[in-house]
TrEMBL record:
PANTHER family the record matches: GTP CYCLOHYDROLASE 1, GTP CYCLOHYDROLASE I
Keyword match Nucleotide-binding: yes
Protein name: GTP cyclohydrolase 1
Keyword terms: GTP-binding, Hydrolase, Metal-binding, Nucleotide-binding, One-carbon metabolism, Zinc
Domain of life: Bacteria
Species of provenance: Vagococcus humatus
UniProt cross-references to NCBIfam families, sorted A to Z: folE, PRK09347.1-2, PRK09347.1-3
GO biological process: one-carbon metabolic process; tetrahydrobiopterin biosynthetic process; tetrahydrofolate biosynthetic process
Record lineage: Bacteria, Bacillati, Bacillota, Bacilli, Lactobacillales
Enzyme Commission number: 3.5.4.16
Reaction(s) catalysed by this chain's protein: GTP + H2O = 7,8-dihydroneopterin 3'-triphosphate + formate + H(+)
């Protein structure tokens, strides 16, 4: 990531909105924003496959659900945060599982780039589907978008719910109903 370029751009924005980038409170701001972007967009650079330490100890064909994974991402339309929770359910194949913490790391990875909620949801589902080859996987995300609350429509408190279903979660009506009712228990 080109930190110097971000700094220069932020300084330009400050001037363009009518601020004085040399006043005491703003002198360090371009540098801070550059470091902040490096952190919140780290998912553009890092490799998510490092989180795929696979164990073969899962209960075959039994569903695993990790709920309420905290999520912070940046809406690509306005570069404002959207904040919420991800819920992931999957049915391992041949006992192929990953550590529970890795789901939070994978959610974080795909959140840390300019995003829309729909694509974030699909990217997490596709990544797990392609790399774990589970019988089925479901990802549900609920989030509040600052671009809808602090500006524009000013729809404070509105929530957006997205889901991505793969494998038996999509094709098998009974499995889909089961996972949705388990996830709905808390959503
Ligand atoms: N589908 C989808 N839309 C999003 C997401 N994040 C923000 N948006 C929307 O992206 C749209 C961009 O609309 P535009 O009309 O191009 O931009 P705008 O004039 O700033 O729109 P307003 O927010 O309505 O003021 C808005 O409706 C946002 O609510 C997201 O994750 N998914
Ligand atoms: Zn937005």
């Amino acid at each position: 990531m080109d930190l110097e370029r971000i700094e220069a751009a932020v300084k330009e924005i400050l001037i363009a909105v009518g601020e004085d980038p040399e006043r005491t409170g703003l002198q360090e701001t371009p540098k801070r924003v550059a470091r902040m972007y490096q952190e919140v967009f780290a998912g553009l650079e890092n490799d998510p496959t490092v989180h795929l330490k696979v164990f073969d100890e899962g209960q075959d064909e039994e569903m695993v659900i990790v709920r309420d994974i905290p999520l912070h991402s940046m809406c690509e339309h306005h570069l404002l945060p959207f904040v919420g929770k991800a819920h992931i359910a999957y049915i391992p194949r041949n006992g192929k599982i990953i550590g529970l913490s890795k789901f939070a790391r994978i959610v974080d990875h795909f959140s840390k780039r300019p995003q829309v909620q729909e694509r974030l949801t699909s990217q997490i589902a596709d990544f797990l589907d392609e790399n774990l080859d589970p019988v089925g996987v479901a990802v549900v995300i609920e989030a509040e978008h600052m671009c809808m609350t602090m500006r524009g429509a000013k729809a404070a408190g509105s929530g957006t719910l997205t889901s991505a279903l793969r494998g038996s979660m999509r094709s098998d009506a009974k499995t889909r109903a089961e996972v949705m009712s388990l996830l709905r228990g808390r959503i």
